[in-house]
Amino acid sequence: MACPPLKIGLAAALTVAGCTHEPLSEVMTTTVGDTSDSSGGSQGPGDGSTGPDATPGSGGATDDTGGTGDTGGTGDTGGSEETGSGSTGPECVDEICNGIDDDCDDEIDEGCDCVDGQEESCYGGPPGTQGMGECAAGSRSCADGAWGACSGEALPTDETCNGLDDDCDGMPDEELGQLSCGLGICMVTVDSCVGGVEQPCMPGPPQVETCNGVDDDCDGVVDNGCCSQIVVGGGFEAGTPNPDWAEASTNFGTPLCTAGCGGGTSHGGSWWAWFGGFDGYDLASVGQDLVIPSGTATLRFWLRIAACAGTVEDTLTVSIDGTPVSAFDNGDASCGAMSYTQHMIDVSAFADGGLHTLTVVGEVFGSGPPASSITNFWFDDVSIEVCI
């Protein structure tokens, strides 16, 4: 039995009705002969051999039953195998910030701070303040390998009265202090912020001014319209040594006298200051330090010049801070007076709220025996009244 032709493209053995082909090492290609034949016979498929009735080797002898058999087609090789070209993969380019080694140097995103499109939280406030009070982090994005500005963060601000922790220290509305308003007894002090609400400051009501060292009518002036006497112990009634006055006398130690001094009289009370009364030289004084408030100040004292020597050398001088404000001598028109006379001097120039010294100095010379010459200055009840 003749074996049928092997189908094109098979590379394995094919067994048909007991006919066996050996495995082929390559794919064979068969050319089919021309189907045109004048005798009407069909052309058998070529398999590289002559037809069954053809003359061997003729490749085309006429067969009454099988037609003209062409030579079998030349067998081609079983397909060509292309040789690999060794492809290089992705092209190497300049590094960009994308999480890939673009320049093929085994380093990823060198020179980049971040990967483009990346986002993270950010905060520029002091340590320990993030998430405290009103402080919160923001966010930033990466572009061209660099972080952009931080957006949406809330940083500490100065504390304001709003019930919030603006400075992010854990305490709302702290250290906002107090408010004071009004003058004198009308002054009021309140906390500036309570419960997140600013507090109003309303001065207290004024009162009628009285002479008490307090600003009762709340006009910023203490005892305005009031007058006060600031000399302490102006009548010398504390005697000697006197706690209110500094005393001195060349011959007697003090000019302060009472009835036991050998005559003379005071203006009021039992004591007065006696300057002179000695037929010889004597320098005597009394003095007191005092604060003269601002205002209108008037110095008052009572003086009696009971006797005058025949010379004009004997004097009595009243001074403030060494500046004479009133002076008398033994040629005064009141020499030999039988009573005291009040003297008033405006000393407002010294009324500045500062410390001053009031001094009374008597200096007599006398003539000595046998022609005795004595001057008597009797001084009492001195005061300085200051009206505001």
If you had to describe this structure to a student in words, what would you say it looks like?
Strands 10, 12, 13, 15, 18 and 20 form a six-stranded antiparallel beta sheet that branches. Strands 11-14-19-16-17 form a five-stranded antiparallel beta sheet, with no helix packed on it. Strand 6 and strand 7 form a beta hairpin. The termini are far apart. The protein is built from no helices and 20 strands. The protein is mainly beta and 388 residues long. Among the domains are: 29 residues, no CATH class; 63 residues, no CATH class; 159 residues, Galactose-binding domain-like (Jelly Rolls, Sandwich), CATH 2.60.120.
Question: What is the overall shape?
Answer: rod-shaped
Summed over residues and divided by their number, the pLDDT gives a mean of: 81
**Helix and strand sequence:** EEEEEEEEEEEEEEEEEEEE
- Major sheet size, sense and barrel closure: 6 strands, antiparallel
* CATH architectural arrangement of the domain at 229-387: Sandwich
Name the poorly predicted regions.
Answer: 3-87
Q: What name goes with the CATH superfamily of the domain at 229-387?
A: Galactose-binding domain-like
Q: Please identify the structural class as seen in this structure.
A: mainly beta
CATH class of the domain at 229-387: Mainly Beta
Radius of gyration: 68 Å
Please count the helical segments. Answer: 0
Question: What is the CATH third-level topology name of the domain at 229-387?
Answer: Jelly Rolls
The total strand number stands at 20
Strand content bin = 25-35%
Bin the helical content: under 10%
